[in-house]
Amino acid sequence: MPSGYEAVIGLEVHAQLTTASKAFCSCPTEFGAQPNVNVCPICLGHPGTLPVLNKNLVAYAVMMGLATQCSIRETSTFSRKNYFYPDLPKGYQVTQYADPICYGGSVEIETDNGIKHIGITRIHMEEDAGKSIHDLDIDTLVDLNRAGVPLIEIVSEPDIRTPHEAYQYLQQIRQILVYLGICDGNLEEGSLRCDANISIRPIGQEKFGTRREVKNLNSFRNVEKAIEYEIGAQIEIVSNGGSVVQQTLMWDAGTQQTKVMRSKELAHDYRYFPEPDLVPVVVSNEWREELRSGLPELALAKKRRLVEEYGIPAYDASILVDDARVARFYETTCAQLEPRTAEAYKLVSNWTMTEMLRIMGEKKCSINDVGITSEQLASLVNSISSGTISSKTAKELFPDMIGSDRSAQDFIEERGLRQISDEGAIKALVEDVVRNNPDNLKKYIEGKTNLFGFFVGQVLKASGGSANPTMVSTLMKEALESSQSSNTVEE
Ligand code: ADP
Ligand code: MG
Ligand code: ZN
Predict the structure, then answer these.
(1) What is the DSSP string of 114-169?
(2) Are 377 and 338 a contacting pair, CB within 8 Å?
(3) Which of 12, 99, 160 has most ligand 1 atoms within 8 Å of its beta carbon, as the pocket-test mutant?
(4) Are residues 148 and 219 in the same domain?
(5) Residue 2 confidence class, pLDDT cut points 50, 70, 90
(6) At how many degrees (to 10) do helices 469-490 and 452-462 cross?
(7) What is the Cα–Cα distance from 21 to 27, expressed in whole angstroms?
(8) Helix, strand, coil percent content, the chain, rounded in steps of 5
(9) Ligand 1 centre and the CA of 253: distance in Å?
(10) Fewer Cβ neighbours under 10 Å: the N or C end of the chain?
(11) Rounded-to-integer distance, Cα 476 and Cα 119, Å
């Protein structure tokens, strides 16, 4: 960073949980329903109604806490955070305040300087507000389907130092949530929301500067860009002799600038007080340990295991684990290899990263709907490993295998694609080609060595594409070298 300053960044991430029903009533949480149909007297805030806590909300919050090395509070309570807004019919949000259910955790990110731990201050449970729809010509409309949908808020320590670290941290949080199956992780659709707290300080100073909070960061790119912009803006304020005041800002993706919304609200503005309608939440040791033992292997651990077990590059592993189903497909395919060698593991990784992911992108589908099963991919890789077909033939075969439910062997037999790996047969073809192209041979010997490709191509053509290209190449090299030396001797 220029100008002798360093940034200090802490993120607050709201994750909408994928429980079937809302936090305190039995209304469905499904997205995309007609406005104001998933509502009842409880989430509409009718007087006299009583909330009932959704057990899965607690379970999901504990799972996230355990996955991020948090301590789990045995007894925690809900509070009311009071404010007025048209999409908040009760006039308060039920949240946790003094005693959040999870606290004191951390998440690992991989930076250029190695692994860095970003502290998690707290994870607390709360309910979402409804949605105000402003961008219509008529008026502002309110949709209360979202009112009462369960959220967890994950608050980081101010351990983040660069926009890119913020990006990586958010990626990690998202990946953990998705792996746990408790949030769909979609920033664009708002099921994951991020606010960034940013301050700057002269390098070497220990004391933090005053922070400003940027809201409305609805994509990973925007998170990085907004923080970048905000750091620059604060350095400019300070460089011009001003000082940063605590404020809440909005990121405007249109102008690519942050703009001040309001001076920062303080806790006392919300008149937090204990929610009288809900009993304290108790997470017994037994339940906590039951949830812990049900946690899946998380992405970072899986990535390290894939590198260790299959010897694939870390780059490959991180792409494969990005989607847990892809990683599972990779491992299931590897289990069916014959023989199970490092080369074959790498081939499966290559095919998965290029062909499978490409089709997933084109069809916008999951790996299970590509139309190629792990059995089929294993059969294809096995045919390459055994030298039965070349990689080139495999590439040609692959599109026809999609949706066919048939193995590579079936196609190879049916189409007579078995490649010639018989040395004698290939040698005969090589000798024919050399003999039948005296002009080019002469040129080759005189130094036009880029004719090598021509000679190889002639052999492949003569074999109808079925000669093993690696063998053709080796044998052709031998043949040309020997005619070269015999030629030199003659002169
Ligand atoms: P609030 O609700 O007032 O925003 P929270 O405790 O929910 O407060 O969140 C505060 C966030 O700001 C945390 O992520 C914390 O790490 C971060 N933070 C605190 N002090 C600073 C600072 N001086 N500079 C940057 N970030 C900070
Ligand atoms: Mg905040
Ligand atoms: Zn309801």
Answers:
(1) EEEEEEEEEEEEEE---EEE--SSS--EEE-TTTT-EEEEEEE-S-B-SHHHHHHH
(2) no
(3) 12
(4) yes
(5) low
(6) 130
(7) 5
(8) 45, 20, 35
(9) 23
(10) C
(11) 61
Q: Which residues in 404-421 are b (16+ Cβ under 10 Å) and which e? A: eeebbeebbeeeebebbb
The DSSP call for residue 420 is B
Q: Strand 131-133 relative to strand 141-143: parallel, antiparallel, unpaired? A: antiparallel
Q: What is the pLDDT of residues 66-115, one digit of tens each?
A: 999 999 999 999 999 999 999 999 999 999 999 999 999 999 998 888 99
What are the Cα distances from residue 121, in Å, to 102, 203, 323? Answer: 8, 24, 27
Question: Regarding predicted confidence, which is higher, 390 or 147?
Answer: 147
Question: Tell me: the pLDDT tens digits for 189-245?
Answer: 889 999 999 999 999 999 999 999 999 898 999 999 999 999 999 999 999 999 999
Whole-number Å distance, alpha carbon 251 to ligand 3 midpoint, is 32
Same domain, yes or no, for 43 and 130?
A: yes
State the first-to-last Cα distance of the chain, in angstroms, to the nearest integer.
Answer: 68
Residues 227 and 352 in one domain: no
pLDDT at 423: 81
CA 145, CA 47: separation in Å to the nearest integer?
A: 19
What is d(CA 491, CA 485) in angstroms, rounded to the nearest whole number? Answer: 10
* Ligand 2 centroid to residue 195 C-alpha, Å: 7
Cα four-point dihedral sign 55, 61, 65, 67: positive
Query: Rounded to whole angstroms, what are the CA distances from 249 to 191, 212, 244, 479?
Result: 21, 7, 12, 73
In DSSP notation, 459-479 reads HHHHTTT-B-HHHHHHHHHHH
**Separation of CA 11 and ligand 2 centre (Å):** 8
**What is the number of other CB atoms lying within 10 angstroms of the CB of residue 402?**
13
Among 210, 213, 212, CA closest to 201: 210
Could you tell me the CATH number of the domain that includes residue 448? 1.10.10.410
- Cβ of 208 less than 6 Å from ligand 1: yes
Core vs surface per residue 6-36: b (16+ CB within 10 A) or e? bbbbbbbbbbbbbbebbbbbebebebeeeee
**Residue 220 belongs to what domain range?**
5-291
- Residue labelled with tokens 């309910």: 127
Domain count, the chain: 3
8 lines ligand 1 (CB under 6 A): yes
| Domain identity same for 405 and 469 | no
Does any ligand 1 atom lie closer than 6 A to the CB of residue 12? yes
Strands 273-274 and 79-82, by their bridges, are: antiparallel
Nearest atom in ligand 1 to 155's CA? 14
Q: Are 127 and 149 in contact (CB under 8 A)?
A: yes
